[in-house]
User: Which sequence fits this backbone?
């Protein structure tokens, strides 16, 4: 059994902005609205001033000690081996379509005549629904029966890149002398999240450019050199081994290049709808 290490208490700054979830979808069987959802990130900032917090309530700044176990998914859990079974694939699609409409399991049960227990088993992939049940669900959710099998038939890609290779591409910072080397991509278009891994290199020919701004989240891991990186109204000194994870919708980028050359891994993640 994994022993969880308590995280020391802290007081997170709040900027008073309430983060609301998306409104509930409109469907002839399921009227109404609901909202919710939040997230979290952390880093080790150098205070620039005493202004508002770097993140909103959903992104409090936190420092975690070495060895602390974070809650969430276990990447080594054996349960992941079940993801390729047909029942699990169907269950995930049923839940995804239900969430897209913004309805509860009770709403879906009322629309289909299925019991709450049966719907729970279907969504959790512990039972194999009959074709009649799938037809009932497809009518209630407004999707074809074949949509429930999409994830099971989806191809799983892997990209291998040799050291020093990768695709050189142009992005906004290219004009400032920033070199972007894309380390991988997937050819599928059914995923809901896009992830772009880059190795970014800054040299004597590069300029500071702390004005990047785009949707999604970004993770930076320093490999070489030293840079002062700006995010919103905060500055972070990054050296090899340091990392920074942040909401990319705020202005960000290198503010001061202290030791060249500078290389860091940048992983950008955003919803496919934002492309």
Assistant:
């Amino acid at each position: 059994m994994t022993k969880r290490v308590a995280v020391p208490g802290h007081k997170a700054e709040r900027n008073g902005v309430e983060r609301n979830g998306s409104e509930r979808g409109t469907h002839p069987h399921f009227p109404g609205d609901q909202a919710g959802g939040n997230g979290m990130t952390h880093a080790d900032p150098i205070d620039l001033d005493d202004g508002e917090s770097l993140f909103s309530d959903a992104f409090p700044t936190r420092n975690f000690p070495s060895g602390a176990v974070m809650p969430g998914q276990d990447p080594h859990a054996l349960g992941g081996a079940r993801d390729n079974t047909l029942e699990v694939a169907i269950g995930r699609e049923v839940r995804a379509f239900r969430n897209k409409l913004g309805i509860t399991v009770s709403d879906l049960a009322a629309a289909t005549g299925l019991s709450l227990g049966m719907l729970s088993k279907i969504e959790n992939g512990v039972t194999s629904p009959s074709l009649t049940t799938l037809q009932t669900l497809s009518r209630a959710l407004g999707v074809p029966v074949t949509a429930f099998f999409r994830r099971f038939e989806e191809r799983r890609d892997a990209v291998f890149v040799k050291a020093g290779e990768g695709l050189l591409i142009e992005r906004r910072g290219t004009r400032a002398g920033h070199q972007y080397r894309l380390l991988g991509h997937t050819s599928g278009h059914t995923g809901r999240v896009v992830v772009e891994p880059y190795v970014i290199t800054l040299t004597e020919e590069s300029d500071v450019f702390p004005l990047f701004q785009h949707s999604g989240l970004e993770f930076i891991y320093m490999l070489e050199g030293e840079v002062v990186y700006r995010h919103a109204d905060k500055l972070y000194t990054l050296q090899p081994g340091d990392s920074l994870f942040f909401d990319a919708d705020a202005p960000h980028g290198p503010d001061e290049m202290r030791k060249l050359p500078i290389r860091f891994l940048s992983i950008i993640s955003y919803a496919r709808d934002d492309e």
